[in-house]
């Protein structure tokens, strides 16, 4: 059974993610919410650390937030089968996020930054991805989806949600692959290392768990699309990649 505090937190997060700016009213230093971020200090650049190392990084980060008088909620999630702890931080600004999640501090692949228009109550969710030490906005969304899925979600006090970044692009690629190759469970032998490079976007794992190609099939597909040389013998020789194709589609 949820405690009263958890129930209140659930309602606060629900209202904020849907554009209500007032949920922190009356809480001393913290006024209405006009911006927020979702990010983690754990597992830098996707490199899994020990529970002790992650706990130390989280403790340091939450202390930093307290010193900066920033209100936060602990967030749990699961992404492509991997559990992750992160934070929902109210009224943080973009420069703070770029510094804290950048290479000088916690060195993350990405973070989510949200803004709320106080007049229209529209929420803009932006996905910022680290590229060569700097963060670039990869995609924007204006909707959040409440979910009961067992994977690919964030959870704050029982409120489970996801923001549908890159899903249209992934669907386009998935449909194209299905037309070309059909579906075969054996595609799960696809090379994860090729997809999951240090700078990859997390949503690619959703794609990788849906449609898999063998290296030979992926190389054939890239040749047919003219993305690699017809002389390429192995996937490692190919200059194009599925990752670049998905990111390109997501920006169209």
Low-confidence spans: pLDDT under 50, at least 5 residues? 183-211
Q: How many runs of DSSP E, i.e. beta strands?
A: 9
User: How many domain modules?
Assistant: 2
Quaternary structure type: single chain
Which descriptor suits the 3D outline? globular
**Distance between the amino and carboxyl termini:** 45 Å
* Helix and strand pattern: HEHEEHEEEEEEHHHHH
Radius of gyration: 20 Å
Main β sheet profile: 9 strands, antiparallel
Helical content (DSSP H or I, runs of 4+): 25-40%
Spatial strand arrangement across the major sheet:
6-5-4-1-3-2-8-9-7
Per DSSP, the total helix count is 8
What value does the average pLDDT take? Answer: 75
- Which class best fits the helix and strand makeup? alpha+beta
β-strand percent reads 15-25%
Blueprint (SSEs and pairs):
Layout lengths: L3 H14 L17 E5 L11 H17 L4 E8 L2 E9 L3 H7 L9 E7 L6 E9 L2 E8 L3 E2 L6 E4 L2 E4 L4 H15 L10 H4 L8 H5 L6 H10 L17 H9 L2
Antiparallel strand pairs: 1-3, 1-4, 2-3, 2-8, 4-5, 5-6, 7-9, 8-9
Helix pairs in contact: 4-8
